[in-house]
Design goal:
9-stranded mixed sheet, alpha/beta, 12 helices, homodimer
């Protein structure tokens, strides 16, 4: 099944304890698309400026991502974000945000993008997310992200969009903020109550947790001794998750569990190098080896305890 | 195999967002012993004052814990700790500590306690831990806890004790403090380097992680919507972990993994009520049901990804 993603395409300037980059390819649709491209055909919907060059397009081409719906504004500049991390890699410090052509982004979907069976609404204005969702009437499974800024400034619009999708993939702080509920377990149940099939809570170095009507599943993060650059990890997770779902015949709880693990696998690669470098160069044996590592590090035999000597 | 625990027996005064108790049975050896008693025979080594009453002894008796080595100082008072928690249940705020008879605690081990095949050194002065460890020459598997106070005031003594045991069970902040290493993965490898067979890092609401020479295993915490009182959760974890090991014929990586899960199972019950109330009233079907829940919430099928359409 094909998969469409709508979201930002950007240049990032990054500084982490491990180094610095003045300008790398970034953006939610980029990280998501690259990650998902290992699993399925991806249509990316976004906007870039005239400064978006062949080196950048090449990344998309290498991964056979359909960029017909990435609009080019020749006299505009691409969305630019600059951020730094200190040793607590869970928190990004924004140094500069220049929305540029992204400020007036109006997603324009070709029939090919509209007809995708799966749709991911990356973090953009909630009303735009809902508008895109309604354009993709035949989508079988639609997931969305959002962010603290929209939750604090227009929670009602965020909730309206949630009611129009099948799955939300957000981090723990956002789940708490959305529901005013400190327990992520209660928060996730409340969000499921909007009619979703699945709520996925991203917990950074602690992994990810999946809530469905009947199920609960949790996967750790991969135990990396050094996280090099966490930018885009959440979108890379979502790309692995949705890409894996798109490659399956059916979406049920068992498949959603494996999708969480593949999402975690892809995110674990993303943070090993700056920007898109690591995922850009990935291959299938590496992906499957890490998937196996996740199995190894969480497996235990289901042997109930029986006391041999009665007390 | 029998199991000896050396540590505090105490009265606790507790205040959490869910209620208040003026005086409940507590202490590391108590929480550990109760938890372990579901799996094996336990000898408890500690000290109490004349204020330790029949109601308290009854808790130990109900669980067939050998209390011969709990010394009674008739004109002394039992160790008393008073603490409170706010909604972030990960942090206890100490309101009062009265060491009382525990201040001059000198563990005295009967032959029965000395001959136990497993030994747990709960959080006491590192030199006393080492002394007890040397008295139990035949112990096949010895584990220890410690705390930030000893690590900051006598790190060398803590390390000397670590070198004399097989396993350490500490929380993530303590692992970082012990090694001056922010990554718990690097910290655990450094601690393993002291010659341990296993390092278990307790991560509160995020579960527990086991490091061995060849293996890595992580289990989440049980998803409780409300944590009622976290006091003693770490010792209850250690009790389930060591108790389960004591009930097995062999201690290998697979068994250590299940021990982590049984530890997490027991800790998840401990926090559901004040003090020892919940674990005191547990039964085997409940324990095995929750163990099965841990399996259900972490299981996924090991199916590597194969892309059906070549790109």
């Amino acid at each position: 099944m094909s998969l469409t993603v709508v979201g930002s395409v950007a240049f990032d300037a990054l500084e982490t304890p491990f180094g610095k980059r003045e300008r790398v390819l970034g953006g939610a649709a980029t990280h998501f698309g690259l990650s998902a491209s290992f699993f399925t055909e991806v249509n990316a919907v976004g906007v870039v400026g005239g400064d978006f060059g062949e080196a950048e397009w090449d990344v998309f081409r290498r991964h056979h991502i359909n960029t017909d719906d990435i609009e080019v504004v020749p006299d505009g500049r691409t969305f630019f974000w600059s951020g730094s991390y200190d040793y607590d890699m869970n928190t990004a410090h924004t140094l500069d945000t220049q929305l540029n052509v992204f400020e007036t982004f109006q997603p324009k979907l070709s029939d090919r993008s509209k007809n995708a069976k799966l749709l991911f609404l990356a973090n953009i204005l909630p009303a735009l997310q809902k508008d895109v969702r309604l354009q993709c009437a035949d989508a079988r499974f639609v997931a969305m992200d959002t962010m603290n800024f929209w939750i604090s400034s227009m929670k009602d619009a965020v909730i309206e969009t949630i009611k129009a999708v099948d799955c939300i993939i957000i981090n723990d702080a956002e789940a708490r903020q959305l529901t005013d509920e400190p327990s992520i377990y209660k928060a996730a149940r409340l969000i499921l109550g909007y009619g979703l099939r699945a709520v996925v809570i991203k917990r950074g170095e602690y992994g990810a947790t999946l809530f469905t009507k009947d199920g609960y599943f949790t996967t750790p993060a991969y135990p990396l001794e050094s996280v090099f650059d966490p930018t885009g990890a959440g979108d890379t997770f979502a790309g692995g998750f949705m890409g894996y779902l798109a490659a399956q015949n059916d979406i049920n709880d068992e498949v959603l569990r494996r999708a969480c693990v593949y999402g975690s696998v892809m995110a674990s690669f993303n943070v090993e190098k700056f920007g898109t470098e690591r995922v850009d160069g990935l291959d299938y044996p590496e992906i499957n080896q890490r998937f196996r590592d996740f199995k190894l590090m969480t497996h235990f035999d289901d042997i109930p305890f029986e006391r041999s000597v009665a007390v």
